Amino acid sequence: MLLVFLAVLLAWAAYRATRPPPPKICGSANGPPVTSPRIKLRDGRHLAYLEFGVPKEKAKYKIIFVHGFGGSRHHNIFADAASRAVIEDLGVYTVSFDRPGYGESDPDPKRTLKSLALDIEELADQLELGSKFYVVGMSMGGLLVWPLLKYIHNRLAGAALLAPVINHWWRSFPSNISNEVYYKMFKQDQWSLRVAHHLPWLTYWWNTQKWFPSSAVASESLAMFSPPDMEIMSKFTLTEAQKTQPKQQGEYESLHRDLMISFGKWEFDPMELENPFPDGEGSVHVWQGDDDRFTPVTLQRYVAKQLPWINYHELPRAGHMFALADGMMDTVLKTLLDVKDK
After folding, report:
1. How far does the chain reach from its first CA to its final CA, in angstroms?
2. CB count, 10 Å around CB of 33?
3. Which residues, 6+ apart, have CB-to-CB distance to 90 below 8 Å?
4. At what angle do helices 297-306 and 175-182 cross, to 10 degrees?
5. Domain 31-336 - what CATH class?
6. pLDDT of residue 1
7. Rounded distance between C-alpha atoms, residue 204 and residue 251, angstroms
8. Half-sphere exposure of residue 329, counting CA atoms within 13 Å on the CB side?
9. What is the per-residue pLDDT across 192-246, written as a single tens digit (0 to 9) for each?
10. At residue 62, what are phi and psi to the nearest 5 degrees?
11. What b/e string do you get for 247-271 counting C-beta neighbours within 10 Å, with b at 16 or more?
């Protein structure tokens, strides 16, 4: 009976160790305060957003920005790196938002690739951005532009994916290419992604246990960044909001669910998508640095080759953070909007 009791006790302890704590919902008794404007979505959740650029009533172009892993609405690449003069001269309005579970947006335990696309469509409708709008995503946010091209392409005027992360388990990847890149990753990230893909219910435990190294990306290890990245990052200082807001509701519904969704089993393969703009009424651009340690250029080249309608821009001697380089976002903006220099 003692052995049975110990076995049950260990099983219960193991079960508890895999169960994440409940999130600290913004606006609740034990949660952070609500400080940002929010919309109420179809299922009752709230989505926080932040506007930047010219007033939308006067804007010629309207862009929704999708932040990356560990980011928030405060990580709007246009506010951080685009020239204010260019934004005003072109008449650009941008809105960034907290993806579910990040910042001040309510978590979505039922989150899927499609649900995020519908969240963005509803954000555009409630903010009255019109029938067509542009989307720009960076890093993990770039990865999540693919579902937008799949599910709401009829609402898009164009899209830009900046250093988009890639899921190694998309079925179109030849195993030799996928494995070659995968096994060049840090061992701890190989294991972290394996868990997120094959055993998602263990993701919380894996990234909080102390026996083995967890994800280098989740722990924000500087070892992930290339020399060009380090040079760029030395010129930027994060604001207090950028540091504290992303994970304030808890890491499980933000970082960990991001890993499970992004590296899980996708219901579609981006490399099988058809051209969302067959009549040339818009364009899709992928920008990639050739010294990106997060998203190896080999995989990005393969994706671009499989999708001839993609406008692929490869930048020499550039890392994952190239979008923050001087003048880069002005170039991305003018290319996406098909605006010629005066």
Report:
1. 84
2. 9
3. 60, 61, 333, 334, 337, 339
4. 150
5. alpha beta
6. 64
7. 9
8. 22
9. 888 999 999 989 988 888 777 767 666 666 677 889 888 988 888 888 888 899 9
10. -125, 125
11. bbbbbbbbbbbbbbbbbbebeebbb
Structure tokens belonging to residue 101: 């579970």
Report residue 300 as tokens.
């990005």
| Cα 295 from Cα 310, distance rounded (Å) | 17
User: What is residue 20's predicted lDDT score, i.e. its pLDDT?
Assistant: 86
* Cα gap 205→214, rounded to integer Å: 10
At 241 the pLDDT is 87
Q: What is the 3-state secondary structure (H, E, C) of 213-273?
A: CCCCCCCCCHHHCCHHHHHHHCCCCCCHHHHHCCCCCCCHHHHHHHHHHHCCCCCCCHHHC
93 and 62 Cβ atoms separated by less than 8 Å: yes
Question: Token digits for 19?
Answer: 């169960």
pTM for the model stands at: 0.92
**pLDDT recorded at residue 11:** 45
The residues with which 61 forms a beta bridge, in sequence order, are 92
Quote the tokens at residue 164.
């988009």
Number of Cβ within a 10 Å radius of residue 135: 27
**Residue 298: both structure tokens together:** 């080999």
In terms of pLDDT, which residue wins out, 341 or 28? 28
Q: Is the pLDDT of residue 293 over 60?
A: yes
What confidence category does residue 151 fall into, taking pLDDT thresholds of 50, 70 and 90?
Answer: very high
Give the DSSP H or E segment for 305.
Answer: helix 297-306
Summarize pLDDT for 47-72 with one digit per residue, the tens.
999 999 999 999 999 999 999 999 99
Report the DSSP pairing between strands 310-315 and 284-289: parallel
**Closest residue by Cα to residue 194 from 214, 172, 176:** 214
pLDDT at 295 over 90: no
Q: Please count the other Cβ atoms lying within 10 Å of the Cβ belonging to residue 118.
A: 17
In this structure, what token pair is assigned to residue 31? 């949660």
Which residues face 92 on adjacent strands?
61
